[in-house]
Design brief:
Elements lengths: L1 H30 L21 H10 L3 E4 L6 H13 L7 H21 L14 H14 L4 E5 L5 H9 L3 H9 L18 E6 L5 E6 L9 H16 L3 H4 E8 H6 L1 H7 L13 E6 L8 H4 L16 E5 L3 H18 L3 E6 L17 H9 L3 H9 L4 H20 L33 H11 L10 H14 L7 H14 L4 E5 L14 E2 L6 E2 L12 E5 L5 H12 L5 E5 L10 H8 L2 H5 L6 E5 L14 H6 L7 E3 L4 H13 L6 E5 L14 H4 L6 E2 L9 E5 L2 H13 L4 E6 L1 E3 L3 H9 L6 E9 L5 H9 L7 E6 L10 H16 L3
Parallel strand pairs: 2-4, 2-5, 5-6, 6-8, 7-8, 9-12, 9-13, 13-14, 14-16, 15-16, 18-19, 18-21, 21-22
Antiparallel strand pairs: 1-7, 3-4, 10-11, 15-20, 17-19
The protein binds thiamine diphosphate.
The site of thiamine diphosphate has 15 residues, from helix 10.
Length: 824
């Protein structure tokens, strides 16, 4: 009887203990001692007030200098694993001398920069110097688990120290940035020192060597995040089967940026998606509880800046940066978790910022009380050394000596040091100015095209094909047999098919890109009975390169960033990003402005990414009409990008193949059609694919000696031809500009020269006067028309690209035609 009652009591006690622990596992992080100067982060009141021994025990685990948020994870095995780490981890062994030395180096490096280069900006990481040993632990642990490469992204804060102490860039190279060695070599270009990327090596304490890549990034906070993930994905593919283990992405964030920037939240959404996952990244919020001059209460509605990460099933570990041993522990748990579960992990490293936003800012104006405290607070290495009685005099002298020598070397440098070495897969590619020597054949023999068409239209026996797709494939079969002209969908499939057959991989991503927004692509066939998928482009031949098409998340910025990153580390393939409609690409403007058009100039980094932007005025309203040609032309300079609008399926075929097969790696912006996708005027006979090449300019095939010449690009050219026919006009030649940048002056000159009697020149566009290619093209055309003005026909100046009324659109379109053919 008594035994029975004891057992019951034990069970009850067990249940009670579980109940108490459960409370702390759920909410303990709220009360954790996370503030660098002691106490919980916000609120200042205890969330969990229950007394008792069990509560005290749980409190010690969950409310110390580590706050773990993991009870929101939907997978019980993951929750239990973290619980085990928190509650039953074996005692940590820490080499305190080593830890003191790393903290000292991080602080001294910054202090020396401060005294040597007084009054210049460096965005000191002081106040969060535990970041350096944290990264050491991340690298040590990941190397033990199979990492060979760390791909890191971080913004300005503490970047120079990380470059020197973690990435392995010699200190004199970092100093050279302050000396501004060799400014003439980058007149009008280059980037500031705290945005430059770097590659180096990191040797773990057990002697393993990791390749280190610190990504170049713009000032735009968090914009680099998707780029780094795209790069990681490409590197993982290069690495092969163990890619996910070998390549570890580590992304560092500021607390204000983490809470505020949407691109980061978009990027987080990639983690578990087939086409975009990298097996998890380590995210570190280098949290100094301030953003420029703003306080946390002004920066996020949530209690923690990390709260947005809770929308994903990933753990968040908060850790007080003033407890470096706890920091090491969290770093180890995070990396173990990533490798065990292929998942993202967030570490919220909570420290402070010793100086102003930059060193020329005075933070006492906006946070006088906080900075009074900070000014009285000694650097962490001093506190830690004192607590553990580590003598720092020798390590400090040794470090200073090394830095002094580096400083002298930097002062004597004549050339800017190269901080980065590109991987060998970039060796055969080039950037710089365009030259016709770069051109390569792009035609594909008719026999091969026929074979490809056969493969592209075949599916396995027993595959239940959708009746509409059956019909489409039958049509495509006829196109491949030369019995029907090819539309864009088939021309694209043949371009992709011929490339993968030649060994060039193809990756396409965008919203609904597998089918195609306009029902034009159908790269994946779906069995109507089983929903099983069949991708004809993956069944071209046994030794073909891979083809991948992904429907992306509904984001522009993160997806374009990811694909740009992918193209940065996969020059051997054709990488394409497709906007649903061209105008939506403005949601990714930061990636266009900061990476795509500027990456080569700022960082010497090349990309052959293709942007497909559906464009054309078809009466669909202010949105869905314009891919904003003007934006890209405004950004075009020194052959930094290519801007094209192929007016036929055949031209599109050659353009895509040219992009992949040339060794010139330049972003290509393609304005793609919508209504014209299947229009007979834009369809091409098979021989246009088996002969010739991409033509930057299309001469008029009918009027060979026009008195008046209309220049145009894209769909309106076809409309002009139809209007000319309707009018029986024999005196107007219509020249299509297929490539707007690099501007094909020589080809245009040759095209104009054929019309020796031409006296009138006209640019006709669908876009309003303040949009389209007009502003860019007309002055350049006027250099080729021998002093004759180039008049323009366009919609009136407008604040939106197009009218919302379909009828008004048609009236406008008609007026454009009238004006184009009106006598001058
Ligand atoms: C997209 C963007 N908006 C604004 C800025 C200007 N800016 C630079 S740093 C900064 C504060 C960043 O605070 P936080 O993310 O906490 O990083 P910290 O500088 O404190 O390390 C701001 C607003 C920027 N660089 N990027």
């Amino acid at each position: 009887m008594s035994t029975h009652s004891t057992e019951l009591t034990d069970t009850e006690q067990g249940l009670e203990r579980e109940r108490v622990f459960d409370l702390f596992r759920r909410w303990g992080y709220m009360d954790a001692n996370l503030h660098p100067f002691g106490g919980p982060l916000a609120g200042g009141y205890p969330e969990i007030r229950i007394p008792g021994d069990t509560a005290d025990e749980a409190r010690r685990i969950y409310c110390g200098t580590i706050g773990a948020e993991f009870m929101h994870l939907p997978q019980s095995d993951r929750r239990e694993w973290i619980q085990e780490q928190m509650e039953n981890a074996p005692a940590q062994k820490v080499d305190r001398r080593w830890l003191t030395e790393r903290l000292l180096q991080a602080d001294l490096f910054e202090q020396i920069l401060q005294t040597r280069y007084l009054g210049t900006k460096r965005y000191s990481g002081e106040g969060a110097t535990a970041l350096i040993p944290m990264l050491d632990m991340v690298l040590e642990t990941s190397a033990d688990l199979g990492a060979t490469t760390a791909l890191m992204a971080m913004s300005h804060r503490g970047r120079l120290t990380v470059m020197s102490l973690t990435v392995g860039i010699p200190a004199e190279y970092v100093f050279a940035g302050f000396e501004d060695v060799d400014p003439r070599s980058i007149l009008g270009g280059g980037d500031v020192k705290y945005h430059q990327g770097a590659t180096g090596e990191y040797t773990t304490r057990s002697g393993k060597v990791l390749r280190m890549h610190l990504a170049s990034n713009p000032s735009h906070l968090e914009a680099v995040d998707p780029v780094v993930l795209g790069r990681a994905r490409a590197k993982q593919i290069h690495a092969g089967q163990n890619g996910v283990k070998e390549i570890l992405p580590i992304i560092m964030h500021g607390d204000a940026a983490f809470a505020g920037q949407g691109i980061w939240a978009e990027t987080l959404n990639f983690a578990g998606l087939k086409g975009y996952s990298v097996g998890g990244s380590i995210h570190v919020i280098v949290n100094n509880l301030i953003g420029f001059t703003s306080n946390p209460r002004e920066l996020h509605t949530s209690r923690f800046s990390s709260d947005l990460a809770k929308r994903q099933p990933i753990p968040i570990f908060h850790v007080n940066a003033e407890d470096p041993e706890a920091v090491l522990r969290v770093a180890k748990i995070a990396v173990d978790y990533r490798y065990r579960f292929d998942s993202d992990v967030v570490i919220d490293l909570v420290g402070y910022r010793r100086h102003g936003h930059s060193e020329v800012d005075d933070p006492t104006i906006t946070q006088p009380l906080l900075y009074k405290k900070i000014n009285e607070h000694p650097p962490l290495f001093e506190l830690y050394a004192e607590k553990h009685k580590v003598d720092t005099s020798e390590m400090s002298a040794r470090f200073r000596e090394g830095i002094d020598a580096a400083y002298d070397k930097a002062a004597k440098m004549e050339k800017s040091p190269v901080l980065r070495k590109l991987p060998a897969y970039w060796d055969k590619y080039e950037g710089g100015r365009y030259s016709s020597k770069l051109e390569v054949p792009t035609a594909v023999s008719e026999a091969t095209l026929r074979q490809l068409a056969e493969k592209l239209t075949t599916y396995p026996d027993g595959f239940n094909i959708h009746p509409k797709i059956k019909k489409l494939l039958e049509q495509r079969q006829k196109m491949g047999a030369g019995k029907l002209n090819l539309d864009y969908g088939m021309a694209e499939a043949l371009a992709f098919g011929s490339l993968v057959q030649q060994g060039v991989p193809v990756r396409l991503s965008g919203q609904d890109s597998r089918r195609g927004t306009f029902n034009q692509r159908h790269s994946v066939l779906i069995d109507t009975e089983t929903e099983q998928e069949f991708v004809p482009l993956s069944h071209i031949s046994s030794d073909q390169a891979w083809f991948e098409a992904y429907n992306s998340i509904l984001s522009e910025a993160a997806v374009l960033g990811f694909e740009y990153g992918f193209s940065r580390d996969y020059p051997d393939g054709l990488t394409l990003w497709e906007a649903q409609f061209g105008d939506f690409a403005n949601g990714a403007q930061v990636i266009v402005d900061q990476f795509l058009v500027a990456g080569e100039d700022k960082w010497g980094l090349l990309s052959g990414l293709v942007m497909l932007l559906p464009h054309g005025y078809e009466g669909q309203g202010p949105e869905h009409s314009s891919g904003r040609i003007e934006r890209y032309l405004q950004l075009a300079a020194k052959d930094n990008i290519q801007v094209a609008q192929p007016s036929t399926a055949g031209q599109y075929f050659h353009l895509l193949r040219r992009q992949a097969l040339r060794t010139w790696r330049k972003p290509l912006i393609v304005f793609t059609p919508k209504g014209m996708l299947r229009h007979p005027d834009a369809a091409s006979p098979l021989h246009e694919l088996s002969e010739g090449h991409f033509r930057t300019v299309i001469q008029d095939p009918e009027i060979t000696n026009g008195e008046r010449i209309i220049f145009c690009t894209g769909k309106i050219g076809h409309e002009l031809r139809r209007e000319r026919k309707r009018r029986g006009d024999k005196r107007t030649g219509i020249i299509f500009l297929e490539q707007m940048f690099p501007f094909p002056a020589a080809d245009l000159e040759a095209a104009i020269a054929q019309h020796s009697n031409a006296r009138e020149f006209l640019w006709v566009q669908e876009e309003p006067a303040n949009m389209g290619a007009l502003f860019f093209v007309v002055p350049l055309l006027e250099r080729l028309t021998h002093g004759q003005p180039v008049r323009t026909v366009k919609r009136s100046w407008s604040s939106t690209p197009a009218t919302g009324s379909h009828t008004a659109h048609e009236m406008e379109q008609k007026t454009l035609m009238e004006l184009a053919f009106a006598a001058f």
